[in-house]
Amino acid sequence: MTPEIENAFAAIRGEHGADSIRRVERMLEPGGGGPRHPLQKGAKWILPGLSPTPWHDPYGHPELTPVVEAFETAHPVIKQELTAAWAGRREAFSDYEHYLTRQEDWQALYLYRAGTLVEESAGTVPTAYQVLEEFAVETDKICPLLECHFSTLLPGAAIAPHCDLWNFSINLHLAVDIPDGCSITVAGETRSWAEGKCLLFDYSFEHEARNDGDRPRTCLLMDLWHPETTIPERRALTALITEIRRLMGDG
């Protein structure tokens, strides 16, 4: 570990106790803190001790319930604003750049990125922006290492099976505009979105998605802290990944 990471970890241990970030330290040991599920082998980091559960009940975690309720309640207005943006502000969307690839048939409109709200989106999709700010950003539920964006798959688009980088954040999908013929598969189990409702899953497990419909499919994706992580662990993980990215020249 670099001196910056060691100093950050020491400060957290001093405030929260010697064992407060032991799971993060174990994650960094040879072997990654223990065995992992076979369908998580493509993930870079697995924080030990988190439930190896691919699909989560969106209402199954009290910490996240207010976020889910707020977005589902606001869905009708969010859909109207998204539809208007897609029709009249297409320049606000860009090809989605996943850490593995870039796809022209996967379009994104960002609300939160690089640890902060994307202010330009406040005027384009104001309701989603406001709900995100109030219920996820100001409450520290969003993982500042990642993002929130409208994810639009064009007809015929497919996202190849892959694992994301880690298991200590979790992906919430609000189904904004869902044509027939769309599906998402996580750890071998395929589901479809119900418009106006949320799905919640651990994207360290292998997953894929496709749009076999006749019009774009749009979800609002949010990277939230895994509800089984603690406050000191979140601080340590933020310091760790931020320093690694700095060393790699990636912000």
Strand pairing plus helix content: what structural class? alpha+beta
Measured on Cα atoms, how large is the radius of gyration?
18 Å
Give the % helix.
25-40%
Encode the helix/strand succession as letters: HHEHEEEHEEEEEEEEH
Number of strands: 12
Q: Report the β-strand fraction as a percent range.
A: 25-35%
What profile does the largest beta sheet have?
A: 8 strands, antiparallel
Distance between the termini: 18 Å
User: Can you tell me the residue ranges where pLDDT is under 50 for at least 5 consecutive residues?
Assistant: none
Q: Can you count the helices?
A: 5
Instruction: Name the overall outline.
Output: globular
Could you report the average pLDDT, rounded to the nearest whole number?
A: 95
Please render the helix and strand layout as text.
Elements: H1 3-16, H2 22-27, E1 55-56, H3 65-88, E2 94-97, E3 102-113, E4 116-117, H4 126-137, E5 148-153, E6 158-162, E7 169-177, E8 182-186, E9 189-191, E10 198-201, E11 207-211, E12 217-225, H5 231-247
Antiparallel strand pairs: 1-10, 2-3, 3-4, 3-5, 5-12, 6-11, 7-10, 7-12, 8-9, 8-11
Textual characterization of the structure:
With 251 residues, the chain is α+β, with helices and mostly antiparallel strands. 29% of the residues lie in helices and 26% in strands. The chain contains 5 helices and 12 strands. Strand 8 (182-186) and strand 9 form a beta hairpin. The mean pLDDT is 95.
